[in-house]
Each structure stands twice: as C-alpha cells, then as structure tokens.
TrEMBL record:
The keyword Cell cycle does not apply. Its main location: cytoplasm. Residues 39-56 have a biased composition (Basic and acidic residues). Residues 39-60 are annotated as: Disordered. Pfam families: TPR_2. GO terms for biological process: axonemal dynein complex assembly; sperm axoneme assembly. The gene is Ttc12. This is Protein unc-45 homolog B. TPR repeats lie at residues 171-204. It is found in: Cytoplasm, Myofibril, Sarcomere, A band; Cytoplasm, Myofibril, Sarcomere, Z line. Keywords: Repeat, TPR repeat.
Amino acid sequence: EQEEEDDFQRFLRRVDEISNLVQGLSSTDPAVKEKALAETEKRLQDQGTGKEEESKSVVNRTVINTQPSVRDGEAVDTGNFLAFLEKDAAERAKRRKRNEQLANALKEKGNDAFRKGDYGVAIQRYTEGLTKLKDKQELYTNRAQAYLRIHEYEKAIGDCEWALKCNAKCIKAYFLMGRAHLALQHYSESRQCYQKILEIDPQKESLFKDCMKEVNLEEKRMRDEERAVKEVEAGKPAALSIKELLQRILGPDQNILYYTGGIRLLAGAVRDCTDQTLFRTNNGFSILRDKEVVRRGFCAERKTPAEVDLTVSLLLLWQAVCTGNEENQRVLLTQPDVGAQLPKLLSSGVLQIQKETLALISLYSETENGRKLLVKHQDLTRWLQILMMFVSSPDARASSAMQILSDLAEEERFRTQCHVLLSTDVLPLFTQLLSSAKLVNQRALACCIGILGNLCADAVPRVQMAESRECWQACLKLMDEHLDASTAEYQECLFAVLGLMMNLLLESNVVIQCMAVDISGRCMSLLRDKDGRIVTRATGVLSRILPASSLAVEAAVKGGVVKKLVKLLKAGGEITSSYALQTLSICTRSDSQAREDLVKSDKTLSVLLKLLDSENEMIVGNAAFCLGQCLAVPGAATSLLNSNVVMVLLRHAGGDASRAAVQENAAVALGKLCVAEPRHMLQLRKLNGFAILNSSMKYLHSS
C-alpha cells in the first residue's frame, strides 16, 4: 500500500515537472526560457549517463518517456525536444480523456446502484472506474459514501485519504471521513475533520456546527451508556443471578442505554442449561413484548448507534440462552417480532448485526431439529437471495452464510420455497456474482455455486436456470477468466461451475443449442488443465453438450478433441474414461473425421481393446460402440488380426450384462469386424461364434 502511494505521488510530481518544462520552453520571457532550456539539457544528460532511472507509475499505466538521450558534448536540439514533449503530452492527454470517459461511465453506473440501495454493486463499479483513472477524486468519495452505508468505516477513511491526495481541499472527503471516525468513536479525529471544512470554506459554518453537535451528542451517549451499565451492576455482590437481572430489566421503564447494559450483563451470566431454563421460566423472552423501548429499537428500520448496540446485545443474549437448548430455540422463534426481523437484520448492512444474526441462525441450521423449527416458523422464500448476497463480503460473514445455506438446502420445504423467486430475484443476483468472480469472496462463491448446483437436482430450478442465457454467459465469463486468476480459490469456483453446468445439461432447450459451440470450446481449452478434477468435469460437460448440436461436434473434431480424449483414456481414471468414451461415441457416430482421427491416434486400437476388459459396463458398451464405428476406416480391421478382439467381443455379445446395449454394441462391432476383414471369420468359427451371436441377438430382440 505504501509503495502504491509512493508511485502515485511520484507520478503527480513528474506530470507537474514536465508540464512546467513545456510551458517554460514556450515562454516569451528569455530568462524563463533559458532556465527551462538548461533544465532540459540537464535532464537529457542525466538520462544519457544512466543517472536517472525510467520513472514508471501505476496511475493510468503511464510511463514518462525520457528518450531520446544525449551523449556528452552533443548539442541539444530544443526544437525537436519541445515537439517531442508536446507530442508525448498530447498522447497522454488523449489516453487520459479516453480513460476519463470510461471512468465517468462507471461512476454513473455506481451512482445508479447507490440510489437503488445496492451498495455492493456501487462499490464494484467505483472500483472498476479507479482502474481506469486512479486520480479521480469523485470515485474515492463516492466509494467512501457507499462504504459508510455498509458500515465499513476503515475503508471509507482510506478512500477519503486518497481523495485528499487528489484534491487537498475536498470538503466532501473531510465530511465523510468525519462521519466514519464518529462511527468508530474517534471523537477527536472526527472534530479535526469538521474543523478542516471550516478552514477551507468559512461559509460552511452552519454545517460545521451541526457536525460538531452530532459529535458531542454521540460522545455524551457513550458516557451515558457506561454509566447505565454501572447502575445495573450497582449493589450486586460477586454477581447477580439470572432471576435478579431479569427483575431489574423487566422492572420500571428505563432508557435504551439501561436496557443495553442490562441485556449484555444477562448474556454474560448465562453459563449452562440451568441458567437457560431459569431465563425461560422467569419470562426472559418477554423483554421484546413487555418493553416498548426495547421492541422499538430492535424493530427500527434505520437504526441509531444506540439501537444497533441494543440489537447486538439481544442477539448475543439469545445465542447464550439457545445454544444446545431446543425448547428455548422453539420459544424464541414463536416471538412474532423475532420471526419478522431476522431477514431484515440479515439485510441491514450493519456488519455487527449481520455477524451476530448469522451466528444465531447457525445454532438452528446446524441441527436437524433446528432446521425444522426454521422451516416451520419462518417464511424462507427470500432467504436464498439474502444469504447469497454475503458472497460479496470479504470477512467471515460469507462463510457463515454459505454454511447456513448448505444446511438449509437439506430441507425439502426450503428447496421448494426457493422456487418462488428463483427466476426474478435469485438468478439475476447469481449471474452478477458469477460475472464479478474476481471481486467477490471466491471461497464463498464456490460454495454458492455448489449449493445452486445441488438445488438443480430438482427439475423446476434446473429448467429455469438452463433457460437463462445470462446464466450461461456468466459461466463462460468465469471460465474465460480462469487463466488470469489461477488462485486456488478461483480454481474451486471453476470446478463448481463445471459441476453446475453438468447438472443444467440434463435439460435440452434452444438456449443450450445456440451456445453449444461456445460451451464446448471453453471445455476443450480446459482439457490440458493441471487439475485432474477440472479435466474430468470439463470432459463430462463435453459429453453432455455435444449431443445438443452437430455444429458443436464438428467444431470440436476440428479442434482436435479426439486426440485429447485418447490421451485421457491412456492416462486412466474410471470417471474421466467414462466421460471421454461417451464424448468419443458422440463424435465417431456422426463425424467421419473423428473416426479417422481415432484410428490415427491409436493405430492398433489398443486403448479401446484395453477398455473392453473394464468391469464398468458403461465403459465396455461405449468402447465397443467406438470400435464398431472405427472399423469403417480402411485398414482398421486388418490391424486387429493378431489381437484377441474376436474373443473379447464374442464374450460380451453372448454375456449376461445388465445393460442390453453392451451385448448389442459388441455384436454389431463383431459383425462390422468380419465384414471389413473376412479373415476374422475364421477365428469366429473356431469359437462357435455364429451360434452364440444368433442366440444373443434373438434374446435381444425378444427383450
């Protein structure tokens, strides 16, 4: 981070120096021009002797061009150098203008997302804009404002500091930084930020007074809260009992700070199942119902800092009394306000509230009985969408949310409720997450993709997702970015998305047919991946996508798919071999070039012969089918004269495989073998093959 800041400052200094140099050389004042000329000559001589390294900046990828160099004693052509500098400046200005247009477009997209309350997307768009133009102050302040909305205060402060490097008098940066410091209870730093606003623009005195008033009130609130906690603790011996604490909380009405302190003490006092039972039997769950101040603070849409603290305290208390206690879990969910508020708390955007709400829900989702309570007492229709949004979180909230989703997906009723908003709400969000794979929590994204893939075991969501062109395009985008983001986490995302695609390809529709060439092409490129799991799933996707389009088969064969599949078959691995043989069967059935490529890659067809000895009937059946297709290639049957192919095929044709296709494919291959090379009939006669074939074919026709 320090290196990035140094580069940024160096870039700004060099731009100023070069601009001043150009202006000096163009000046009508002889003294100014002579001074600029001397500086120019000095710079060029320094470059020629290697005294100054080429200055590079990460900002806009701009390199300050220091050529041409001048040797000692060589005269400086100031006219040419001036023209060169002007040309270089013009080119940089042109690039900057283009980048500024892109950055402005991304800023507007971010502003639109911000207005809609989609702060995660807004942050992504502002971040993308900064990759185009790193010194654009508005992008930093806008992103800081979005960070404030999701309570990422440290990040907001960082962006304000960057904005002030771009514009030292940016009032908005000081204002937002003051609010962020206030939220972090850095009262002195907050006051300093607001004081800066007044120094920059004395006419902002009214804003300054309002801000300072807010800081003073918040600081007073914190002192009052500390005093309230002391009042609750006052007079107790070593520790108050659960019953005594509840009596104080449920007694005469107090302010919100009193309740917050009392509830935190109560949460800390719960140590075992006896305390949990005492809490329930002494009306502990009635706090929300009986205390309007508590209920109002817990249910507030836009919570004040005091209401946030109260809500977090309640969540911690409920975790303490519900851990391992099924009866308390049941009673809590029957409280009307709790059931209604849980999804709202998850969507609140307040980090601490979200964290503790996820921790509370995890107590339910990790057990079968807890999940049944959630399904019974909660409307989970929007939970899939809400929990998926945490994939954008860089912290532990993402993994907690995905674990809850994974647990809930085991419940049939939850899976059924997921169907309601899948196409309208869930799919657009999922597509957006896939398209932004580089920017989100990739470990969580991989889990999310796997969960959606498992949900596709049900036909309803599978059909809806398979018909979404946007979903397919997002999958392809993730595959395209695989080479640029070869981290272990991204590899898991790719592995998961290939599994999802395999599930979706159980369907057949127009969208799949139209995209078959693109999908198969991406999978072809993955067949050389170092991760065997990726290769296996890419082969599996090929085996399911190629039947959807003859054009995809043709393109795959032209791309050398047969040779790649033969290599996979030689390497072994039952699952990979099964997918590879299915793919070869599809290609050789409809494409003569594929048959020729297979014979060319394996002249003696030894790979197929070896696979005929497999214990896997699927592999045997497909190997026999491919062999039968290849026998149409001239010379293929002759190359098998010295092999035991007749005996092997006859054994399968007359065997008792559970799959009739195994017997049929073996019999057909044997027939083609004898037609293509009659000398194989001698071996067939010796083995009494005609009688065996006749008997097996009669059986196949009758069955």
